[in-house]
Amino acid sequence: MNGSEPGDITVLLHAWASGDSAAFNRLFPDVYAELEHIARNRLRAQGQGHTIDPTTLVHEAYLRLSQSDPVRWQDRTHFFAVAATVMRHILVDQARARKTARRGAGLVVTLSEAVQEASALDAELLDIDAALSELAALDQQQARIVEMRFFSGLSIEETAGVLGISTATVKRDWAVAKTWIRRRLTNG
After folding, report:
1. Of 18, 52, 101, 158, which is most buried by a Cβ count within 10 Å?
2. Which pTM was predicted?
3. 17 lies in some domain
4. How many angstroms separate the CA atoms of 13 and 2, rounded?
């Protein structure tokens, strides 16, 4: 970070939520490195074949966050959890767009392994997104825990803090949600 303390970030988040749009512009340089770390981990966890790099993912997330309605930020952990969720949505949107483009293009001749890897990655990402949406319909809290743990990389304690629940509840729901998603992906 650019020398800002975690409390400074929270102050900027609260100012931004209160309508100070310039606070977001002051905030971004302080959170950029952590956002890029989240993006890099997110892309690495999903394997090779992405058509987007961590820097582009962070910049796209920045645009979406800056254009979104104000959020009542709890703290920096809450911000990073939301940013990671925004990154997930960006990746899913891109996978859907590529799938639609391939479907509408008629006969597709694959010329490289990279294209095949991207197609497989898109399908996997869309399957995970569909499973997470189904889980959210069944249990919204478990879906949020999966987003924060898997997509944001938050610890059990950080997830509990953001959601305002106990660590025991996070551990229990995380175990149940992982099992449910694993079954859904292998049987779906």
Report:
1. 158
2. 0.66
3. yes
4. 16
CA distance 105 to 99: 10
Taking Cα atoms as reference points, which of 125, 102, 105, 155 lies closest to residue 50?
125
Query: Which amino acid, 47?
Result: G
Q: What backbone phi and psi angles, to 5 degrees, belong to 149?
A: -80, -50
State both tokens at 84. 């990671």
Q: Which of 137, 124, 128, 122 is nearest to 178 (CA)?
A: 128
With b for 16 or more beta-carbon neighbours within 10 A and e for fewer, the 68-104 pattern comes to eeeeebbbbbbbbbbbbbbbbebbbebbeebeeeeee
| Domain that includes residue 75, residue range | 6-187
Residue-wise pLDDT tens digits, 69-88: 878 888 888 888 888 888 88
Element (H, E) at 59: helix 54-66
Query: Residue 1 falls within a domain, yes or no?
Result: no
